[in-house]
Amino acid sequence: MESLETMYERIGISKEVIRLGAGTEASLKERFEAIDRTAEYNQLKVLHAMQKNRVAEAHFSGSTGYGYNDMGRDTLEQVYADVFHAEAALVRPQITCGTHALNVALAANLRPGDELLSPVGKPYDTLEEVIGIRESKGSLKEYGISYAQADLKPDGTFDYDAIASNIHDRTKVATIQRSKGYATRPSFSVEQIGELIAFLKSKKPDLICMVDNCYGEFTETIEPTDVGADMCVGSLIKNPGGGLAPCGGYIVGREDCIEQAAYRLSSPGLGKEVGASLGLNQTLYQGFFLSPTVTAGAVKGAIFAAALYEKLGFSVFPSSDTERHDIIQAIDMKTPEALKAFCRGIQAAAPVDSFVTPEPWAMPGYDSDVIMAAGAFVQGSSIELSADGPLKPPYTVFFQGGLTWYHAKTGILFSVQKLLDANVISL
Ligand SMILES: *Cc1c(COP(=O)(O)O)cnc(C)c1O
After folding, report:
1. What is the mean pLDDT of the chain?
2. Angle, in degrees to the nearest 10, between helices 15-27 and 281-311
3. For 45, what's the count of Cα atoms within 13 Å in the CB-facing half-sphere?
4. Among 171, 253, 278, 325, which is least packed by CB within 10 angstroms?
């Protein structure tokens, strides 16, 4: 049998990089044990919900056409609701992506004349067009829904004075983004989100608090619905799809909010009753079942990358010793060559399209070329190992995912190898 070292060497990772990785991994033993305990807890949470709802083989057969009486779909939604300790859920392959899920949740619960408040600063890029911060056809703004924003304080904490001054009669929904996404602020813990929601509700008890939960699911043992969120929203090609879901999104929360969302997603009068699951039920159950473990692997990968690149002298966000509330890791690569080498390493380690060389390219919505690395089973899936960054100083790469910890580790080691090969670093 070949040794583990030989196996890494065969894929293109040298002894010195393997050694560097081993030292880093050893230093993270306690962190990794804590992540495993979170995964263990969340695994039981999902298992309990599946047993309580008597998930059976019959739930795996899908519906077609209108999708009336789809027991598998309805039971899956109850499983999600139970895991999130919420009243109801909408979990549908017809929800295209996270942005779509957020748009449905917002548009469904706001009416002309209402105002949407972000108490956590600028939201995720794609939400700018949903809200109408950037002019866009079909935005909430076009429907007469206004928007207010309270920026975070310079240290990344909530500015309660600014938030309070932005709450008034017309304020109907608050949108709270848990993960920093591709911004530079810190991500919020569920506990912090709970404090924010308590404050918002103390100012306006009937304010609907929606959390953009993208990238956050199962990184902690509680979710925003455990601390007062009225809705929690995310994408199935991120954490909760467990890498298996081929598409879809979810909205989970208060019964009346979810009912509104269902009428918006399908049609007034139809709501949750329609929406064929086709052949996807079994995959969505299985992906959700695997999600706690898959997410844990991705979190380990993020911390491993942070620790390794800190050692190599790069600035990393968050730092390796930061408590994690999502799966995203940012690293300032300092030069275009280093950014490209990093992405080429991630690509070279992929199970799919490993032979492709990523090149920087102009992308809609970006003011500089962008380089992306992804060799995914599901197009655009960012619970799978992926990296991207705009080619402008400080050449930050955003890195996330990994269906298994071992693959995340291989990808990160390969990125270091590419930096070494390109003479960006020396060991
Ligand atoms: C990914 C993400 C979204 C939605 O993005 P999609 O690409 O439409 O799935 C929204 N908010 C945050 C914080 C995200 O990470």
Report:
1. 96
2. 100
3. 22
4. 278
224-237 pLDDT tens trace: 999 999 999 999 99
Residue pLDDT, tens place only, 270-290 = 999 999 999 999 999 999 999
Q: Which residue has the tokens 């030069």?
A: 335
Q: How far is the CA of 239 from the centre of ligand 1 (A)?
A: 11
Distance from the CA of 248 to the center of ligand 1, in angstroms?
Answer: 12
Query: What pLDDT does residue 59 have?
Result: 97
Closest atom of ligand 1 to 97 CA is 9
Question: Is the overall model pTM greater than 0.85, yes or no?
Answer: yes
Three-state SS for 14?
Answer: coil
- Ligand 1: which residue has its CA nearest to atom 13? 181
Report d(CA 415, CA 423) in Å as an integer.
13
- Are 224 and 193 in contact by the 8 Å Cβ rule? The answer is yes
- Residue 356 tokens, joined: 């492709």
pLDDT band (50, 70, 90) for residue 36: very high
Sign of the Cα torsion 211, 215, 220, 222 reads: positive
Atom of ligand 1 nearest to the CA of 98: 9
Average pLDDT over residues 193-212: 98
Query: Probe ligand 1: pick from 212, 219, 251, 382, max atoms within 8 Å of CB?
Result: 212
For residue 3, the CA-to-ligand 1 centroid distance in Å is: 40
Mean pLDDT (whole number) for 93-117: 98
Distance CA 301, CA 309 (A): 12
Atom of ligand 1 nearest to the CA of 235: 9
Atom 9 of ligand 1 has which residue's CA nearest to it? 98
* Residues 6 or more apart in contact with residue 402 via CB below 8 angstroms: 297, 298, 300, 301, 384, 385, 408, 409, 411
Strand partners for 372: 388
Residues whose beta carbon lies within 6 Å of some atom of ligand 1: 97-99, 124, 126, 177, 179, 181, 212, 214-215, 235
Confidence of residue 365 (pLDDT cuts 50, 70, 90): low
Which residues, other chains included, contact 3 with Cβ-Cβ below 8 Å and sequence gap of 6+?
A: none
CA distances from 243 to 41, 236, 280, 284 (A): 20, 8, 13, 10
Taking the CA of residue 124 as reference, the ligand 1 atom at the shortest distance is 11
CA distance 210 to 197: 9
How sure is the predictor about 184, in pLDDT bands with cuts at 50, 70 and 90? Answer: confident
Residues 221, 214: contact at Cβ < 8 Å?
no
